[in-house]
Design goal:
With about 110 residues, the chain is mostly helical. The protein contains 3 helices and no strands.
Length: about 110
């Protein structure tokens, strides 16, 4: 059996097991507490992934800008403004994730 065929068969098997498990564990009507727990978990995961990704992005952007300034100190004026703009855009994505987490939290208990 070729390597590509093995990968496709593994992927197909994984998809079938994943799709069948939802039917096997389905409830007739999920309780409100379970729903609220999943919403809280989703909000926490959303903001944690966004904060982690934003911190990584800002760290890499600042490191690249400082590396460029260290290599060519006369270019610091040209590097500073795009770096600040990039950091602001990265931070705006984290703020969007925070807003989504707050919106999810407001649905708890309704």
């Amino acid at each position: 059996m070729t390597r590509a065929r093995q990968i496709w068969m593994s992927l197909f098997s994984f998809m079938m097991v994943s799709l069948a498990s939802g039917v096997a564990f389905a409830e007739s009507s999920p309780s409100k507490d379970a729903r609220d727990g999943w919403i809280a978990l989703g909000a926490g995961i959303a903001i944690s992934i966004a904060a982690f990704g934003g911190a990584l992005g800002q760290g890499r952007a600042a490191a690249a800008a400082l590396d460029g300034i260290a290599r060519n100190p006369s270019a610091s004026g040209k590097l500073f403004t795009p770096m600040i703009l990039g950091l602001a855009l990265i931070e705006s994505l984290v703020i969007y994730a925070l807003l989504i987490a707050f919106l999810l939290q407001t649905n708890i208990g309704k």
